[in-house]
Give the backbone structure.
Amino acid sequence: VSASAWLLLSPSLSERTRATKSVFNQNNNNNIRPFSSSSSTTTTTLMSSSTSSSPSSSSPFTIAQFPCLDDNYGYLIHDETTGQTAAIDTPCAKTYQTHLDRRGWTLTHILNTHHHHDHTGGNQELKERNSHNNSNSNNIVTIYGPANEADRIPGLDVALGGGDTLPFGSSSSTSIAVMDVGGHTKGHIAFHIPSQNVVFVGDALFALGCGKMFEGTPEQFWKSLKALRELSDETTVYCAHEYTSGNAKFALSVEPGNTELQTRALQIREARSKGLPTVPTTMGLEKRTNPFLRVDISDEIRDRVGIRGDDDEATAFGKLRRAKDGFR
Protein backbone atom coordinates (compact mmCIF):
# COMPACT_ATOMS: atom_id res chain seq x y z
CA VAL A 1 0.00 0.00 0.00
CA SER A 2 1.46 3.37 -0.95
CA ALA A 3 2.17 6.14 1.52
CA SER A 4 -0.27 8.32 -0.44
CA ALA A 5 -3.15 6.05 0.62
CA TRP A 6 -2.30 6.63 4.27
CA LEU A 7 -2.02 10.38 3.74
CA LEU A 8 -5.45 10.41 2.12
CA LEU A 9 -7.01 8.65 5.07
CA SER A 10 -5.19 10.68 7.71
CA PRO A 11 -5.09 14.28 6.49
CA SER A 12 -3.25 15.31 9.63
CA LEU A 13 -0.09 13.73 8.32
CA SER A 14 -0.21 15.61 5.02
CA GLU A 15 -1.66 18.90 6.27
CA ARG A 16 1.03 19.57 8.84
CA THR A 17 4.58 20.64 7.97
CA ARG A 18 6.68 18.20 9.90
CA ALA A 19 8.95 15.23 9.32
CA THR A 20 6.81 12.08 9.15
CA LYS A 21 7.50 8.44 8.53
CA SER A 22 4.86 5.69 8.46
CA VAL A 23 5.71 2.01 8.45
CA PHE A 24 3.17 -0.65 7.50
CA ASN A 25 3.36 -4.34 8.34
CA GLN A 26 0.54 -6.16 6.59
CA ASN A 27 -0.34 -9.17 4.50
CA ASN A 28 -2.01 -9.28 1.08
CA ASN A 29 -5.45 -10.45 2.16
CA ASN A 30 -8.01 -8.21 0.46
CA ASN A 31 -10.78 -9.15 2.89
CA ILE A 32 -11.34 -7.24 6.10
CA ARG A 33 -8.96 -8.76 8.62
CA PRO A 34 -9.36 -9.28 12.34
CA PHE A 35 -7.62 -6.57 14.32
CA SER A 36 -4.40 -8.15 15.56
CA SER A 37 -0.74 -7.57 16.20
CA SER A 38 -0.08 -8.08 12.50
CA SER A 39 -2.09 -4.96 11.68
CA SER A 40 -0.38 -1.72 10.78
CA THR A 41 2.22 -0.15 13.02
CA THR A 42 3.06 3.51 12.46
CA THR A 43 5.82 5.77 13.67
CA THR A 44 5.45 9.55 13.41
CA THR A 45 8.37 11.88 14.07
CA LEU A 46 7.56 15.48 15.00
CA MET A 47 10.16 18.22 15.04
CA SER A 48 9.93 19.54 18.57
CA SER A 49 11.49 22.98 18.88
CA SER A 50 13.03 23.95 22.21
CA THR A 51 13.03 27.42 23.73
CA SER A 52 16.26 28.23 21.87
CA SER A 53 15.97 29.89 18.48
CA SER A 54 18.87 27.91 17.06
CA PRO A 55 17.82 25.43 14.34
CA SER A 56 20.15 22.87 15.89
CA SER A 57 18.09 22.97 19.08
CA SER A 58 15.18 21.16 17.46
CA SER A 59 14.94 17.52 18.45
CA PRO A 60 12.80 14.62 17.18
CA PHE A 61 9.65 13.87 19.16
CA THR A 62 8.35 10.47 18.09
CA ILE A 63 4.93 8.83 18.43
CA ALA A 64 4.70 5.07 17.91
CA GLN A 65 1.24 3.58 17.33
CA PHE A 66 0.53 -0.15 17.36
CA PRO A 67 -2.40 -2.57 17.86
CA CYS A 68 -3.15 -4.08 21.28
CA LEU A 69 -5.68 -6.67 22.45
CA ASP A 70 -8.68 -7.04 20.13
CA ASP A 71 -9.20 -3.46 18.95
CA ASN A 72 -7.13 -1.13 21.15
CA TYR A 73 -4.31 1.07 19.95
CA GLY A 74 -1.18 1.46 22.01
CA TYR A 75 0.90 4.63 21.95
CA LEU A 76 4.44 5.48 23.00
CA ILE A 77 5.80 9.05 22.97
CA HIS A 78 9.57 9.40 22.90
CA ASP A 79 11.80 12.45 23.29
CA GLU A 80 15.18 11.65 21.79
CA THR A 81 17.08 14.40 23.61
CA THR A 82 16.18 13.28 27.13
CA GLY A 83 15.36 9.66 26.34
CA GLN A 84 12.04 10.03 28.14
CA THR A 85 9.32 7.70 26.89
CA ALA A 86 5.65 7.82 27.88
CA ALA A 87 3.03 5.13 27.42
CA ILE A 88 -0.46 6.45 26.76
CA ASP A 89 -2.54 3.87 28.64
CA THR A 90 -1.37 0.26 28.98
CA PRO A 91 -3.79 -2.21 27.41
CA CYS A 92 -1.18 -4.99 27.22
CA ALA A 93 2.19 -4.97 29.00
CA LYS A 94 3.70 -7.60 26.70
CA THR A 95 2.88 -5.66 23.53
CA TYR A 96 4.18 -2.40 24.94
CA GLN A 97 7.39 -4.03 26.14
CA THR A 98 7.94 -5.57 22.73
CA HIS A 99 7.76 -2.15 21.09
CA LEU A 100 9.94 -0.54 23.74
CA ASP A 101 12.60 -3.21 23.27
CA ARG A 102 12.40 -3.09 19.48
CA ARG A 103 13.10 0.65 19.50
CA GLY A 104 15.60 0.60 22.34
CA TRP A 105 13.48 2.97 24.42
CA THR A 106 13.26 3.01 28.22
CA LEU A 107 9.82 3.69 29.69
CA THR A 108 9.75 6.65 32.10
CA HIS A 109 6.06 7.70 32.22
CA ILE A 110 2.68 5.97 32.12
CA LEU A 111 -0.22 8.30 31.34
CA ASN A 112 -3.64 6.79 32.02
CA THR A 113 -6.73 8.44 30.55
CA HIS A 114 -9.22 6.50 32.70
CA HIS A 115 -9.56 3.46 34.92
CA HIS A 116 -10.90 0.76 32.57
CA HIS A 117 -8.77 -2.37 32.56
CA ASP A 118 -8.01 -2.21 28.85
CA HIS A 119 -6.29 1.10 29.60
CA THR A 120 -4.55 0.29 32.89
CA GLY A 121 -4.02 -3.47 32.80
CA GLY A 122 -0.29 -3.25 32.06
CA ASN A 123 0.58 -0.54 34.59
CA GLN A 124 2.19 -2.61 37.31
CA GLU A 125 4.12 -5.00 35.08
CA LEU A 126 5.51 -2.23 32.90
CA LYS A 127 6.55 -0.21 35.93
CA GLU A 128 8.28 -3.20 37.53
CA ARG A 129 10.09 -4.19 34.32
CA ASN A 130 11.33 -0.70 33.51
CA SER A 131 12.17 0.72 36.93
CA HIS A 132 15.82 0.27 37.96
CA ASN A 133 17.85 1.81 40.75
CA ASN A 134 21.35 0.37 40.63
CA SER A 135 24.86 1.18 39.46
CA ASN A 136 23.90 0.68 35.81
CA SER A 137 20.56 2.50 35.73
CA ASN A 138 18.50 4.90 37.80
CA ASN A 139 15.06 4.98 36.22
CA ILE A 140 11.77 4.90 38.11
CA VAL A 141 8.61 4.78 36.02
CA THR A 142 6.00 7.27 37.23
CA ILE A 143 2.30 6.49 36.73
CA TYR A 144 0.01 9.48 36.13
CA GLY A 145 -3.78 9.30 35.99
CA PRO A 146 -7.06 11.08 36.67
CA ALA A 147 -7.47 12.46 40.18
CA ASN A 148 -11.19 11.67 40.18
CA GLU A 149 -10.40 7.98 39.62
CA ALA A 150 -7.26 7.83 41.77
CA ASP A 151 -8.39 4.82 43.76
CA ARG A 152 -9.02 2.84 40.55
CA ILE A 153 -5.71 3.42 38.74
CA PRO A 154 -3.24 0.59 39.54
CA GLY A 155 0.02 1.91 40.98
CA LEU A 156 -0.92 5.59 40.59
CA ASP A 157 1.89 7.93 41.66
CA VAL A 158 0.63 11.35 40.53
CA ALA A 159 -3.04 12.36 40.25
CA LEU A 160 -3.92 14.85 37.50
CA GLY A 161 -6.93 17.02 36.76
CA GLY A 162 -8.07 19.35 34.03
CA GLY A 163 -5.81 22.38 33.74
CA ASP A 164 -2.70 20.62 35.03
CA THR A 165 0.50 20.68 33.01
CA LEU A 166 2.89 17.75 32.88
CA PRO A 167 6.53 18.50 31.93
CA PHE A 168 7.86 16.06 29.36
CA GLY A 169 10.88 16.01 27.12
CA SER A 170 13.64 18.53 26.64
CA SER A 171 11.68 21.79 26.61
CA SER A 172 8.44 23.51 27.40
CA SER A 173 7.35 22.92 23.81
CA THR A 174 6.61 19.29 24.64
CA SER A 175 4.77 19.94 27.91
CA ILE A 176 1.50 18.04 28.14
CA ALA A 177 -1.72 19.84 29.05
CA VAL A 178 -4.35 17.79 30.88
CA MET A 179 -7.97 18.17 29.76
CA ASP A 180 -11.04 17.13 31.75
CA VAL A 181 -13.12 15.03 29.33
CA GLY A 182 -15.35 13.10 31.72
CA GLY A 183 -18.46 11.33 30.47
CA HIS A 184 -17.33 7.88 29.35
CA THR A 185 -16.09 7.60 32.92
CA LYS A 186 -16.53 10.36 35.48
CA GLY A 187 -12.86 11.25 35.76
CA HIS A 188 -11.66 10.65 32.20
CA ILE A 189 -8.82 12.95 31.10
CA ALA A 190 -7.08 13.64 27.79
CA PHE A 191 -3.46 14.58 27.11
CA HIS A 192 -2.95 17.55 24.78
CA ILE A 193 0.41 18.73 23.45
CA PRO A 194 -0.55 22.20 22.20
CA SER A 195 2.74 23.09 20.50
CA GLN A 196 2.54 19.94 18.40
CA ASN A 197 -1.23 20.03 17.73
CA VAL A 198 -1.61 16.51 19.12
CA VAL A 199 -4.19 15.14 21.57
CA PHE A 200 -4.61 11.66 23.07
CA VAL A 201 -8.28 11.28 23.91
CA GLY A 202 -8.62 7.71 25.19
CA ASP A 203 -12.27 6.69 24.90
CA ALA A 204 -13.75 10.19 25.13
CA LEU A 205 -13.76 10.71 21.37
CA PHE A 206 -13.41 8.24 18.51
CA ALA A 207 -13.09 8.64 14.77
CA LEU A 208 -16.75 9.30 13.86
CA GLY A 209 -17.91 8.51 17.39
CA CYS A 210 -17.50 8.90 21.14
CA GLY A 211 -17.31 6.51 24.06
CA LYS A 212 -20.31 4.94 25.75
CA MET A 213 -21.61 6.95 28.68
CA PHE A 214 -20.88 4.43 31.43
CA GLU A 215 -20.58 6.77 34.41
CA GLY A 216 -21.05 10.38 33.37
CA THR A 217 -24.10 12.45 32.52
CA PRO A 218 -25.15 13.95 29.19
CA GLU A 219 -24.32 17.40 30.57
CA GLN A 220 -20.80 16.35 31.58
CA PHE A 221 -20.06 14.43 28.39
CA TRP A 222 -21.36 17.15 26.10
CA LYS A 223 -19.24 19.76 27.91
CA SER A 224 -16.21 17.52 27.38
CA LEU A 225 -16.88 17.05 23.67
CA LYS A 226 -17.36 20.77 23.19
CA ALA A 227 -14.00 21.38 24.89
CA LEU A 228 -12.34 18.95 22.47
CA ARG A 229 -14.15 20.59 19.57
CA GLU A 230 -12.51 23.88 20.52
CA LEU A 231 -9.10 22.47 19.56
CA SER A 232 -7.75 23.61 16.20
CA ASP A 233 -8.79 21.83 13.03
CA GLU A 234 -5.16 20.81 12.49
CA THR A 235 -5.00 18.91 15.79
CA THR A 236 -4.13 15.25 15.29
CA VAL A 237 -6.48 13.07 17.34
CA TYR A 238 -5.21 9.75 18.66
CA CYS A 239 -8.07 7.67 20.06
CA ALA A 240 -7.85 4.32 21.78
CA HIS A 241 -9.84 1.93 19.57
CA GLU A 242 -10.39 0.91 15.96
CA TYR A 243 -14.17 1.42 15.97
CA THR A 244 -14.42 3.55 12.86
CA SER A 245 -16.22 1.13 10.52
CA GLY A 246 -19.13 0.67 12.91
CA ASN A 247 -19.16 4.36 13.76
CA ALA A 248 -19.37 5.23 10.07
CA LYS A 249 -22.49 3.11 9.62
CA PHE A 250 -24.23 4.91 12.46
CA ALA A 251 -23.05 8.32 11.29
CA LEU A 252 -24.49 7.67 7.83
CA SER A 253 -27.79 6.57 9.37
CA VAL A 254 -28.25 9.91 11.14
CA GLU A 255 -26.69 12.26 8.57
CA PRO A 256 -26.94 10.57 5.15
CA GLY A 257 -26.89 13.90 3.34
CA ASN A 258 -23.36 14.77 4.52
CA THR A 259 -21.34 14.35 1.32
CA GLU A 260 -17.96 14.51 3.06
CA LEU A 261 -19.12 11.78 5.42
CA GLN A 262 -20.15 9.65 2.43
CA THR A 263 -16.69 10.00 0.92
CA ARG A 264 -15.00 9.31 4.23
CA ALA A 265 -17.06 6.15 4.77
CA LEU A 266 -15.85 4.77 1.44
CA GLN A 267 -12.25 5.56 2.35
CA ILE A 268 -12.68 3.83 5.70
CA ARG A 269 -14.13 0.73 4.06
CA GLU A 270 -11.21 0.55 1.65
CA ALA A 271 -8.64 1.10 4.40
CA ARG A 272 -10.01 -1.61 6.65
CA SER A 273 -10.24 -4.06 3.73
CA LYS A 274 -6.47 -3.67 3.43
CA GLY A 275 -5.83 -3.90 7.15
CA LEU A 276 -4.92 -0.22 7.43
CA PRO A 277 -5.75 1.82 10.54
CA THR A 278 -8.23 4.68 10.38
CA VAL A 279 -6.59 6.37 13.37
CA PRO A 280 -5.28 9.01 13.86
CA THR A 281 -7.79 11.50 12.56
CA THR A 282 -7.90 15.29 12.70
CA MET A 283 -10.20 17.51 14.70
CA GLY A 284 -11.23 19.34 11.54
CA LEU A 285 -12.36 16.11 9.91
CA GLU A 286 -14.28 15.12 13.04
CA LYS A 287 -15.99 18.51 13.21
CA ARG A 288 -17.23 18.01 9.66
CA THR A 289 -18.29 14.35 9.86
CA ASN A 290 -18.63 13.09 13.45
CA PRO A 291 -22.31 13.25 14.52
CA PHE A 292 -21.37 13.63 18.19
CA LEU A 293 -19.64 16.91 17.40
CA ARG A 294 -22.46 18.03 15.11
CA VAL A 295 -25.63 17.32 17.05
CA ASP A 296 -26.09 21.01 17.87
CA ILE A 297 -25.59 22.22 14.28
CA SER A 298 -27.08 19.57 11.99
CA ASP A 299 -30.83 19.69 11.46
CA GLU A 300 -30.65 16.31 9.71
CA ILE A 301 -29.16 14.61 12.78
CA ARG A 302 -31.68 16.29 15.07
CA ASP A 303 -34.61 15.17 12.91
CA ARG A 304 -33.34 11.60 12.61
CA VAL A 305 -33.00 11.00 16.37
CA GLY A 306 -36.13 12.87 17.45
CA ILE A 307 -34.61 15.94 19.04
CA ARG A 308 -37.28 18.54 19.79
CA GLY A 309 -36.96 22.25 19.36
CA ASP A 310 -37.02 22.87 23.10
CA ASP A 311 -34.35 20.24 23.91
CA ASP A 312 -31.15 21.80 25.17
CA GLU A 313 -27.79 20.71 23.75
CA ALA A 314 -27.03 18.18 26.48
CA THR A 315 -30.44 16.56 26.08
CA ALA A 316 -29.89 16.41 22.32
CA PHE A 317 -26.52 14.75 22.83
CA GLY A 318 -28.08 12.25 25.25
CA LYS A 319 -30.67 11.25 22.67
CA LEU A 320 -27.99 10.79 20.04
CA ARG A 321 -25.85 8.69 22.40
CA ARG A 322 -28.84 6.47 23.24
CA ALA A 323 -29.58 6.07 19.53
CA LYS A 324 -26.03 4.83 19.02
CA ASP A 325 -26.32 2.45 21.99
CA GLY A 326 -29.31 0.78 20.34
CA PHE A 327 -27.97 0.84 16.79
CA ARG A 328 -27.39 -2.50 15.06
Summary: The longest strand covers residues 59-68. Residues 1-39, 48-58 have pLDDT under 50 and may be disordered. Residues 147 and 159 are 4 Å apart (CA to CA). The first helix runs from residue 3 to 9.
